[in-house]
Structures are given as structure tokens and as C-alpha cells.
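hiii so my PI (J.) wants the whole complex modelled not just the main chain, which honestly fair. so below is everything: two entries, each one labled with what it is. i double checked the lines twice but i was tired so who knows lol
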Amino acid sequence: MRQSSLLTGVLRGYTLLLFVFVFAPIAFSVIFSFNSARFPTIPLESFTLHWYETIWADPDVWEALRNSVIVSLCTSVLATALGFATAYTDYRYNFRFKSAYLALVLLPPTIPLIIMALAMLAWFSKIGASGELWSIIIAHTVLAAPFAMAITRLRLNQMDKDLESAAWNLGASEWRAMREVIIPFCKPAIISAAFLTAAVSFDEFAIAWFVSGLNKTIPVLILEIVQGNIDPQVNAIGTFVFLVSITLVVAAQVFFSLRQSKGST
Amino acid sequence: MQIDHAQNNAPTARRMDLFALTWRMPIIVWQVLFFVGPLLFMVAMSFFLVKNYVMQETFVFDNWSKMFSRGYFRDSYFYTLFLATLSTISASLLAFPASFALAFKVSDSTRRWALFLLIIPFFTSYLVRIFSWYVILAESGVINGMLSTIGLGPYTMLNTKFGTVVGYMTLTLPLVVVLQTFSLANIDRNLVQAAHNLGCSPWRTVYTVIVPLAKTGLIVAALFCFILSFGDFVSPYYLGGSKPPTLPILIIDTTKSGQQWPRAAVIAVVMMATLITIAFAAITLAYRKRTSR
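here's the output for the full assembly
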């Protein structure tokens, strides 16, 4: 018995170490963004807001931020809508080639981003759409829609199948049942999907780098700064990026888990 | 057989109605135009030619024969395969004790919190996290700074395979732990208890009962890890020093500086073919019924 509790202790300690490993880069990025050393190391030098002042005064950062916000917002709306429509189709209908249909929808995140980036770059220049902000939006929507679809589909699983039929029997049209039964029921999932897809888009750098042309987003800007040399500015931008994406992902998870409290009747 | 639950009650269920099409068609149109289209075009592009910096839509095998005759392409291919395999084995082994602990040795609420936390980094700027590792692992970085206070080091960790694998772990460990934990937590506890009652030692229970039962999830986790590592260019470039370059780095170099999109497409198609083969093998393995003994 004592041996097994020792084992449990060791395993828990190991798990804690793994969490330290996973979150160390995020923590150090935040710490170094307030550290005055040009090349960050231990022991720390003095506290400074210099790097934040630098990026605050940099018009390139503002431009990239504007692009990132536009791209994330548009991707979020498009991917959530497409994801919802697909999840509903999967929930309600059976049809021939349905597995091909689902593969078509769910495969994009399993393709390496660098391959998607090259394919998108070539395709967009073929159809004359490269280097535009909306080419990034289109590509990100392909990438993010499966996440929205998965979240909404899980929510629909929680729904009593008779709920929709009951609405029809009471005389509601399919459209009205959709508006007054399905969509309200899925609302937490839809909000969750909107946050998560925004996060996916906000952090994506490979495709954005290839197809963006001159319209850099924040991750592309970071990629270009990092290619130069060590620049603690990156830690300041990085801290900001972490703050945004962690907020989005946490919000997505909070809304998603609402189903447990309210969903189970 | 699954039954279309709405068939009997739906107002207009029989014919292919506007309502159904409204929800079904958008994603088909979107993915055909912007997912299947680009990928097929990329395959076609691998047969194009570039003359005077202009791409000509031909059908020749020049790019293929050029790429396959280059030693660096072959080297790069096997090196990438090696790194991705190393990453997959490392991640699977490093994740397993933690997944095991999260599945069996903690309370339900701790597990929920742990999974909640692990999902965050998966969606959180990988690029910045790698830059952070760059600073941590550098010659005069955090780790060597700490080690020097006890008189050790400095050790070279950047531009090594170790650095690359640290990067891969940053990318893949959270996901692998989440997937492994799900598959372990879904195991029927009675079977584990039975093994225990029959006097099976803890270690033996792990590899004769638990691992086989969780096999599908463990393999799927490893497969995701392989795909992510195989396609990643950030870790081998910034932490591994790109010597030799991996296939994704080769795609970037060929596209960005060489302007040789068709040759980059050859690399991409070879990568896709490799991944499809490996995914197929892994899935077959994952879902194969256990042979009765």
C-alpha cells in the first residue's frame, strides 16, 4: 500500500513538471517583456516598460493589429456560420456520401499548415486573389470551420431529438423551428465556436505569411522580427498575443461547458 | 442502422428541399473552392514549368526528376522522417505517465481542470512560445544562467536535435496528453480492478491490460503528433538551426527565395503522400481487432 501511494506521488509530481514545461515559455515571455536586459537571462535586470513603449509607438504594430482584428472577426463569423450549418446537417440528415461530406469538412486541420499555405498561395494567385486581406480570411475559415462544427455538433448531441419534431407538430415551419428551437439551444456552442475560431485565426502564421502580401497580421509581424535577431520587443507583443488568445480560448471553454449545467434536463 | 429521425414528422421531408440545401451546401461549395481546389491545383502545379520567373501551365516531369535527383532532397526527407518519429516516440512516452496520473490518480475535478489548462496552449501562439524557448535555451540564456550559479555549463542546446525536440514537445505534448487521458479515462475500471485482484502487478497491468484497452486513442494521439511534427517548420528552423533543413523549411526556401513554386509543390505532394500512407497504416493498426489468444 505504501508503495502505491509513493507511486501516486511520483506520478503527480511528474505531471506537475509536465505542466511547468508546457507553461514555462508563456511565463518567461511575460517576465522578460518587463525586463530591461537586451538579451534576457537569469538573474533578471531591472523592471521596465520600455518594450511596451516601443511597440506602442510602432505604426507597423498598429497596422498589423488592425489587420489581425479584421481577419479574426471575419473568420470567426464565417467559420461559426459554416460550422453551425454543417453540424445541423450532420445532426439531422442522412444522405449518400455522408462520410465523404464529413471528411471534406473535418480534414483541413490535419493537413500541415505549410502545405495549405503553399496550396493557398498558388490557388489565390491563379484566381487573382493573392495578397489581399480577405484571402487570409478565406483560408482561415477553411481551417477554423471544423472546430466550430465539432463544438456545435457536441451541443446538438445534448438536445432531445423530439424537441424539434414537437415544434413541427405544433405547426411551426422548419425555418421557425430552427429560429426558435435549434438556434437558441445551440447559443452557448455558437458563442463558444465564435471565440475559438477567432483564436485559431488570431494565432495562425504560416498561411497568413504566405498569402498576406503586404497585409501583415500580428503573427506574421512577429515571424519577421524573429527572423532578424533577438529582440525583446517580441516578448512584449507576445505577451499581448498570449493575453488575447488565452482570453478567447478560456471564453470558448466557459461557454462550451455551460451545456453541462443548463443542457442536461 | 441510424434512422433519419425527422423523416416522418418533418413538414417537407421527402423531396430535396430548400431548407436542407441551405444547411448542407455552403460548406461543400466553400471547401471545394478553397480546400480541394487549392490542393488539387498544387498537385497540378508540380508539373508546371517556370521560365523567366513566369509559371507556365505545362505537363512535364522536370520538377519531379530534378527534385529526386538532388541529394539534399533525399537527405532532407529522411531527416524530417527521423525527427518526426523521434518526436512521436518522445511525446508518447513523456506524455504517458502524466496521462496515466490524470486518468487514474486524480479526482474528476482535477482532471477537468488539467484538461481545461492543456487545451489553452494548443490554441496559443506557438511562434512566441518557440521564441521564448530560444531565449531560455540560449548559450547565455535562462537554463545556462541558472546552471552557472552552481558551476555547470554552459551547454549548447540551440541548433541541436535536442532543441528541435523541445520545440516539437511544446507543440505536441498538450494535445498528446489530452488525447491519451481521454482514452485512458474511458477504460472500464472493472477490468483494471480484476487484473489487480488476480494478482497482476501494477507494471504488468499497465502493459497487458491498460495499454491494449486504450490502444486506439494512444495511436491516434501519436499520429497527430507525427503529423504536427512532420509539417512544422518553426522548431527545426529556430531551435534546430535548420542544419540540415527539414522538408517544410525546404518548401519555404523554394517558394520564398527561389520563386520555384512547382518544385515546392513536388515537396508538398511527397509530404502529403507520406502522411497519407502513415495515417492509413496507423488507423489500420489502431482499429485492428485483437487476435484472440
